[in-house]
Amino acid sequence: MRYIPQVSFSSDDWSTRHSVLTIARRTAALINILADRCPDPADVADVLRAYGETDPIGLTTRDVAAMRAAAALLRPVFAAEHADDAAATLNRLLQDHTGPLRLTSHGGTTPWHPHLDHDDNASWDEWLLASSCMALTVLVWDRQRPPGRICASTSCQNVFITQGSGPERRYCSRRCATRERVAAHRRSHSTEQPSEIEEGAQGTPPPARGRMTGRPPV
Fold first, then answer.
1. pLDDT tens for residues 122-135?
2. How far is the C-alpha of 79 from the C-alpha of 93, rounded, in Å?
3. How confident is the model at residue 6, as a pLDDT?
4. Which of 8, 69, 99, 218 could hold 118 in an S-S bridge, CB 3.0 to 4.6 Å?
5. Nearest partner of 34 among 121, 129, 155, judged by Cα
6. Helix %, strand %, coil % for the chain, to 5?
7. For the residues 41-61, what does the mean pLDDT come to?
């Protein structure tokens, strides 16, 4: 069960840390770390802190296992090719796994903001599903396209949030993009070399046997 600490807040700072885009990015980061077979609760807690959650974060192995199941339900949203597919997946999640929309200030410790979990003491997995569905739904609504993608690298299955009006990203990071570009270059180079050798063999007579003395070999 989540513990909501009693802390003072700056409205501007709180709004930045809990913006729709920040929550969506937190969703992607949690899906990625929870994709491991046995995620370490300490590592998951570090991701939560990086995106604005405050201590104490008392995650147990049971909490993490439940969060891992929730993350698996969210991954298809990132696999959606079109806004219609993303919306259909989110609609199913909203119907099956979230409560009615409500406003909370966590007992006056935060600004009023919307929640889709059933109460402020919801479990970590319910909170993850509810907050993620809220943010991803707003992104689909605002952009009229899928909110994110799964990395196109064959050696990476990380999800990421797409943003901006330019060409959509295909990779979760520059590292993956560079690795795939280098691999494609090597594949192209390796397929060109045999054809060059074959062409050279067809146009050049085989070398004569014997010592190169200027005389015909005997």
1. 999 999 999 999 99
2. 15
3. 45
4. 99
5. 129
6. 55, 5, 40
7. 93
Residue carrying structure tokens 């599903």: 129
What pLDDT does residue 15 have? 64
> At 146, which amino acid appears?
P
Stretch 10-15: mean pLDDT: 60
**Phi and psi of 66, rounded to 5°?**
-70, -40
Q: Nearest to residue 34, comparing CAs of 6, 63, 10?
A: 63
pLDDT at position 168, please? 75
Token readout for 47 is 């991701």
Place of tokens 């070999």: 217
Structural tokens at position 193: 């070399």
Most confident residue range from 17-26, 47-56, 83-92, 169-178: 83-92
DSSP string, 95-161: HHH----EEE-TTTTS--EEE-SSSTT--HHHHHHHHHHHHHHHHHHHHSS-SEEE---TT---EEE
d(CA 45, CA 53): 9
